[in-house]
Backbone:
């Protein structure tokens, strides 16, 4: 089933083209459901953090001793200061500035990156919003725009979908690799009429409506089944709090392992969590529902670190 709808406003501004100005808000259109693992010490069950380490000495570097450098040649860097980087940031205009309208099917699939739902910003924006959506639908066009989100400028396509609009962030031209060097079949490799007919018959036999609920992430489902089975078998292990993070004696401490065991045995209902615990749980739930919020970059970096243990990133120049 689809991820729950998020009404959280991630960005507020307006669509602008010509003299038209339509107030709108952006909302996350996707949800991250991949398994997110934490790094733990096997023997002590304490969390393992990510340190920025000097590769020459192996020593952890204090934040104030780290600078940002751009590699212009092999082992040759230009260092940029925080003020220099800040001065180069794009000026936020809170505007989805449409610069052109193009045929929807003229944008190659490799350019599409991340979608956002676009919603009218108040009652005053309802009619112009509907007018733009209907015009795009009738003409088969999409609006190509520039927009600044969280200090970063993006190229984007404004696309009609149902009764609304979707703003799909696009990759810049220099971010899309040229496929000319790949061993794609040329014009001299042609299928016969009989082969084409049989292939078309096979496609027709397998044709159907788009039903995304029929497709599942089997790897994630198997891992979740394994986690739930180990949980039922008493495989939960408590993480040891770091010094200074111990729960104060006056706080209400809930033994989660015992509560789970009692629940599995059909015991009495678990006591309601303390106000502080409820607040923490609500914050975690909100963060999980809106993974696209730019302020949560720290959590994303942790996930990326885990992913790098199983997949070697492609070699590329370091950017700021």
Residues:
């Amino acid at each position: 089933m689809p991820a729950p709808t998020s009404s959280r406003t991630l960005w507020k501004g307006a669509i602008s083209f010509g003299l038209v100005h339509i107030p709108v808000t952006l909302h996350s259109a996707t949800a991250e459901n991949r398994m997110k693992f934490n790094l733990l010490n096997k023997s002590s069950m304490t969390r393992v953090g990510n340190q920025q380490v000097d590769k020459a000495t192996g020593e952890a570097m204090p934040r104030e001793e780290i600078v940002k450098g751009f590699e212009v040649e092999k082992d040759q860097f230009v260092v940029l200061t925080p003020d220099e980087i800040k001065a180069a940031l794009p000026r936020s205009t809170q505007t989805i500035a449409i610069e052109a309208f193009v045929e929807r099917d003229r944008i190659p699939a490799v350019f599409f990156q991340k979608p956002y739902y676009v919603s009218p910003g108040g009652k005053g924006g309802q009619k112009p919003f509907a007018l733009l959506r209907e015009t795009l639908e009738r003409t088969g066009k999409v609006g190509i725009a520039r927009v600044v989100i969280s200090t970063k400028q993006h190229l984007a396509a404004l696309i009609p979908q149902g009764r609304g609009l979707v703003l799909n962030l696009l990759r810049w031209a220099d971010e899309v690799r040229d496929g000319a060097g790949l061993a794609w079949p040329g014009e001299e490799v042609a299928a016969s009429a009989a082969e084409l007919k049989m292939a078309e018959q096979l496609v027709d036999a397998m044709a159907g409506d788009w039903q995304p609920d029929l497709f599942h992430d089997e790897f994630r489902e198997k891992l979740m089944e394994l986690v739930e089975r180990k949980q039922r078998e008493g495989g939960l292990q408590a993480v040891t709090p770091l010094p200074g993070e111990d729960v104060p004696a006056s706080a209400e401490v809930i033994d989660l392992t015992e509560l789970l065991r009692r629940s599995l045995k059909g015991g009495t209902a678990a006591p309601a969590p303390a106000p502080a615990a409820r607040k923490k749980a609500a914050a975690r739930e909100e963060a999980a529902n809106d993974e696209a919020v730019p302020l949560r970059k720290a959590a994303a970096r942790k996930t990326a670190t885990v992913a790098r243990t199983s997949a070697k990133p492609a070699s590329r120049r370091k950017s700021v």
Observations:
- The helical segments are 82-88, 126-139, 193-206, 218-232, 256-264, 275-289, 297-308.
- The longest helix spans residues 218-232.
- Residues 268-320 have pLDDT under 50 and may be disordered.
- The two ends are 39 Å apart (CA to CA).
